[in-house]
């Protein structure tokens, strides 16, 4: 892929319409709940990727709680100005 096609591909995949801020929960056998946040291009993939090497051992799999589509371009680098980021806080 080169030239204009590459530029369009990069612009599309870096657009704010393809970026999400998400929250998730993990529950242990005693009923304790861990609440976490992550971000990525797809809410379910973001949670799955975060859960893969999670520091909270002894808890079950991460379950998606909320997902907010970014309202500003730039993804994670624009998070502090994006209302969607603050919605997941």
Account of the 3D structure:
Residues 5-10 have low confidence and may be disordered. A hairpin with a 5-residue loop joins strand 1 and strand 2. The longest helix has 11 residues, at 3-13. The radius of gyration is 15 Å and the shape is elongated. The protein has 89 residues and is α+β, with helices and mostly antiparallel strands. It has 3 helices and 3 strands, in the order H-E-E-H-E-H. It has helices at 3-13, 43-52, 83-87; strands at residues 20-27, 33-40, 63-69. A 3-stranded antiparallel β-sheet has the order 2-1-3.
Observed structural traits:
3 helices; three-stranded antiparallel β-sheet; alpha+beta; 89 residues; 3 strands
Report the portion of residues in β strands.
Answer: 25-35%
Fraction of residues in helix: 25-40%
Poorly predicted regions? 5-10
Count every helix, treating DSSP H or I runs of 4 or more residues as helices. 3
Largest sheet: 3 strands, antiparallel
Reading the helices and strands in chain order gives: HEEHEH
Tell me the structural class: alpha+beta
Total number of β-strand segments? 3
Strand order of the largest sheet: 2-1-3
Distance between the ends: 38 Å
In total, the number of domains comes to 1
Overall pLDDT score: 83
Question: If you compute it from the alpha carbons, what radius of gyration comes out, rounded to the nearest whole angstrom?
Answer: 15 Å
Shape: elongated
